[in-house]
Amino acid sequence: MIALRLHPDKQSAAQALARETADLIGLRSESGKPTVLGLATGSTPLPLYAELIRLHREERLSFRTVITFNLDEYEGLGPAHPQSYRRFMEEHLFRHLDIPSGNIRFPDGLAKDPAQECAAYEAAIRAAGGIDLQILGIGRTGHIGFNEPPSAVESRTRRVRLDEVTRRDNAVFFDEPTAVPHRALTMGVATILEARRVELLAFGAAKADIVARAVRETPSADCPATWLQRHPACTFHLDAASASKL
After folding, report:
1. Cα 182 vs. chain centroid, distance in angstroms?
2. Cα separation, 45 vs 43, whole angstroms
3. Tens digits of residue pLDDT in 168-199
4. Fewer CB under 10 Å: which end of the chain, C or N?
5. Three-state SS for 70?
6. Cβ-count burial 171-184 (b if 16+ within 10 Å, e if not)
7. C-alpha distances in Å from residue 201, one per residue of 16, 48, 93, 236
8. Closest alpha carbon to 82 in 72, 93, 90, 71
9. Domains, the chain, ordered by start
10. pTM of the predicted model, to two decimals?
């Protein structure tokens, strides 16, 4: 079942979730265990990442015991490419923290054997003990990660083709729309559902329709975000606009 948490604005949501993340890191660090975070890209989580950076700088929150796995990466883009998700995360989060570089994990968009790379990514998540807290956004197609419809609940990390709606939405990050890759490597739905906690962020009126579908529709591959209804600890963090059709 999806829990709904309404915030006055996205900054308030970012502050609340950043504090919860900091508390989790502190608790696990005290017990001698790493914290494994699943991270998302795009504009939606940027206020959260800015708040985590603030906590690190001003309140001495350390990320030395944190391991991260990003949801996805574009096929054909290496870590130095300006529009790669690795570059995005470096600029907006990692370079501002004390997280060891070896603790940062991404699917390799340049992998010669994508299937092997995806299997290795799954194995790395298992070896780290699984994801403690997974951050998500939601796309207009209902995708979580790059799990476009139709995406089965059993799906694992794999190579996918991006929906044209998603490519158009992501074109704002590229010099021209034709430069947006057609494929990506993404964690699967089953991979996401195995995280111990899932926290989804969605703000603004443009997300109202898909948020309502994700919460109300019967879970199916036609709207992959509906599978989150089956997670025992999933929270949607919303503002009034994104929650307006619930």
Report:
1. 19
2. 6
3. 999 999 999 999 999 999 999 999 999 999 99
4. N
5. strand
6. eeeeeeeeebbeeb
7. 12, 9, 17, 6
8. 90
9. 2-238 (3.40.50.1360)
10. 0.97
